[in-house]
Backbone:
């Protein structure tokens, strides 16, 4: 106790004195530290596929990623189409089929094409060649077994069925012909 | 802040860079089938693919309509009708039927064959291709043969005929018709010839102990 008269001053003096540490504090602290895993131990104890990842992406890097993905998707898409059917749109799709000849007599024609199920009904895919005489036009197309509807287009505008072939069904007002290719 | 502002950009560019097929569109229809029809046709193709149907015949039908300048509604109607026919034929021929078989089956169906006829054809030609047999059904009807007669002829040949036999049969019937025979008579004559060839007891058969294979 001091010689001050004011009890409040006495309390303040007591509170200003440093708190005393227990003698075993150091031991307790060191024991807790020893229980902690060593640095890096937490990261290696969890498999990599179960850890959380933080990815920081800048817009410019995102563009690069998008470009790469687009190239991959495009490449797979093109490859799928190439494997699935013809190499290019409108090309006859049978790559190892039976050779089938289409013939039309059209002396007045300046150009003849054949359109059908075998070439995506493309007006430009399968032009006929003109023979030396008789107004004969012809082309040979490989076709795998199946039933194909087709028609000739003369001079780009006039639709003609094949007079030598069976008629095929049509729902659009222009007659078709049919060729059936067998496999056995 | 800038990352958040431009965060949509990669997604937008990716969507724009994807080929039509990755966006659920059939690339062969783009630029050929009018937009008014293409959206509906694409939806039909997606649904058909999900049901295990081949989409090639459907794409062909859409392209045919586009090349022939069909109105969008007619084009969509044609594709829808073919889709429905493919379902019927697939049920008749089985899930393992090829695209060519299914396509030929739809032609036979349209020519007048019934789903039951196609089931019968499948059972008579187990493990043998159906494409040409079904196609000949349609071809005979197109040549003027009554549908039930054509179906009966094709089924009569079904157990033994191979593709070449069917094609020869159809060609001979067609030739007879061109020479003046009525379609029904031409078919009846050719079927009788085929049956006699297959019957070893017939005086017209190729010989005893020979093959029972029917040769049109």
Residues:
């Amino acid at each position: 106790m001091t010689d001050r008269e004011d009890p409040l001053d006495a309390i303040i003096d007591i509170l200003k004195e440093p708190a005393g540490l227990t003698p075993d504090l150091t031991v307790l602290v060191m024991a807790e530290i020893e229980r902690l895993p060593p640095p890096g131990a937490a990261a290696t104890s969890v498999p990599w596929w179960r850890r959380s990842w933080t990815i920081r992406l800048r817009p410019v890097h995102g563009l690069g990623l998008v470009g790469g993905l687009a190239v991959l998707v495009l490449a797979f898409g093109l490859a799928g189409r190439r494997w699935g059917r013809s190499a290019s749109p409108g090309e006859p799709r049978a790559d190892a089929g039976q050779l089938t000849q289409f013939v039309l007599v059209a002396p007045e024609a300046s150009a003849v094409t054949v359109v059908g199920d075998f070439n995506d009904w493309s007006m430009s895919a399968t032009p006929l060649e003109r023979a030396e005489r008789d107004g004969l036009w012809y082309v040979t197309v490989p076709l795998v077994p199946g039933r194909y509807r087709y028609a000739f287009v003369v001079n780009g505008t006039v639709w003609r069925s094949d007079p030598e072939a069976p008629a095929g069904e049509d729902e659009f007002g222009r007659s078709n012909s049919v060729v059936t290719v067998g496999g056995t | 802040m800038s990352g958040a502002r431009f965060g949509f950009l990669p997604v937008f560019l990716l969507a724009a860079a994807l080929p039509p097929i990755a966006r659920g569109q059939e690339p062969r229809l783009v630029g050929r089938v009018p937009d008014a029809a293409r959206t509906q046709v694409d939806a039909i193709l997606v649904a058909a693919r999900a049901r295990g149907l081949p989409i090639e015949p459907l794409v062909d039908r859409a392209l045919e309509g586009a090349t022939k300048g069909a109105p969008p509604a007619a084009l969509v109607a044609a594709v829808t009708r073919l889709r429905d026919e493919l379902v019927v034929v697939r049920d008749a021929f089985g899930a393992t039927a090829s695209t060519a078989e299914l396509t030929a089956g739809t032609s036979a169906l349209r020519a007048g064959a019934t789903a039951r006829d196609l089931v019968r054809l499948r059972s008579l030609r187990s493990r043998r291709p159906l494409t040409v047999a079904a196609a000949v059904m349609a071809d005979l009807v197109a040549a003027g043969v009554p549908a039930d007669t054509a179906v009966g002829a094709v089924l009569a040949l079904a157990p033994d005929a191979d593709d070449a036999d069917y094609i020869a049969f159809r060609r001979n019937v067609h030739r007879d018709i061109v020479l003046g025979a009525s379609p029904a008579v031409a078919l009846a004559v050719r079927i009788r010839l085929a049956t006699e060839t297959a019957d070893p007891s017939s005086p017209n058969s190729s010989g005893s102990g020979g093959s029972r294979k029917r040769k049109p």
User: Anything to note?
Assistant: Chain B touches chain A through 57 residues (CB under 8 Å). Confidence is low (pLDDT under 50) at residues 202-215 of chain B. The two ends of chain B are 81 Å apart (CA to CA). Residues 72-93 of chain B form the longest helix (22 residues).
